[in-house]
Amino acid sequence: MTVRVVVPAHLRTLARVNGELKIDVDGPVTQRTVLDALEATYPVLRGTIRHHVTRERRAFLRLFACEQDLSHESPDTPLPEAVATGAEPLLIIGAMAGG
Q1: C-alpha span between 28 and 94 (Å, rounded)
Q2: What are the backbone angles phi and psi of residue 76, rounded to the nearest 5°?
Q3: Alpha-carbon separation of residue 53 from 47, 50, 58, 83, 99 (angstroms)
Q4: Nearest 5°: CA angle at 58, between 95 and 33?
Q5: 90: nearest Cα among 17, 14, 25, 10
Q6: CB contact at 8 A, 50 and 21
Q7: Which residue of 29, 31, 36, 60 shows the fewest CB atoms closer than 10 Å?
Q8: 79, 30 in Cβ contact below 8 A?
Q9: What is the pLDDT at residue 95?
């Protein structure tokens, strides 16, 4: 499956890409498989979205798809069908803290 992924501008600059990314994912389309494929395709992004050792999502990055915050879903939960088919992108967005 080809999945569309949108990453923050600073990560696009790091990966030297413009616009949305198209990632080929083998097997079920989950957060884990999409991020594994993203890091395999763009090795420079390893450690920027997930911790190098624990592989957990970085605290100030959020994952959205189909107008839903998927950040606290299990990494192995299937993503919405619209993301799996490429109709909608998976959005990786930098979060802000403070008040």
Answers
A1: 25
A2: -100, 5
A3: 9, 9, 12, 27, 31
A4: 110
A5: 25
A6: no
A7: 60
A8: yes
A9: 81
Tokens of 13: 């600059």
Q: Domains in the chain, start-ordered, CATH in brackets?
A: 2-94 (3.10.20.30)
Amino acid at 94: G
Give the pLDDT confidence score for residue 99 in this predicted structure.
60
CA triple 68-71-31, angle to 5 deg: 95
Which residue in the block uniquely carries the two structure tokens 């079920």? 28
How far, CA to CA in Å, does 43 sit from each of 5, 26, 30, 55, 74?
15, 18, 19, 14, 23
pLDDT at 18: 94
Helix (H, G, I), strand (E, B) or coil at 83: helix
Token pair 């999945």 is found at 3
Tens-digit pLDDT string for the chain (99 aa): 899 999 999 999 999 999 999 999 999 999 999 999 999 999 999 999 999 899 999 888 999 999 999 999 999 999 999 999 999 999 999 887 766
